[in-house]
Design goal:
Elements lengths: L2 E10 L4 H11 L4 E8 L3 E8 L2 H10 L5 E11 L4 H11 L4 E7 L6 E8 L2 H9 L1
Antiparallel strand pairs: 1-3, 1-4, 2-3, 4-6, 5-6
Amino acid sequence: MPIVKQLTILLENKPGALSNVCSDLASKDINILALSVLDTIDSGLVRMVVDDHEHAVKVFADSGLNVILTDVLSLEMVHKPGTMADITRQLSKASINIEYAYGSVPPGDGTSIGIFWVSNLKKAIEILEA
């Protein structure tokens, strides 16, 4: 159960802003593994996990974007009803707060990926690996 680096960037909330970010990564052969976009009145908060976070940080810096790196859990989960309920119940019983979470479902193989920012990464790993 790896801890991965999540990139967070603030974008202007306008057509093309997210497309530009995604295109910049694609042009450098960086793959987006999971993505979350939250809109506000004048900006968008983009959180993502990519296959080469160090290279992505440089790409964003070259584009004038500030990046925040955060350690998050990347959980491979069985893609079936109840999986998320089980994970969140285990974390709750251990008094680990989920600050936010988002997921990605690869097609066809029966697994999914959940990205979790939690109050205690080490304890969360211990609980969920048991």
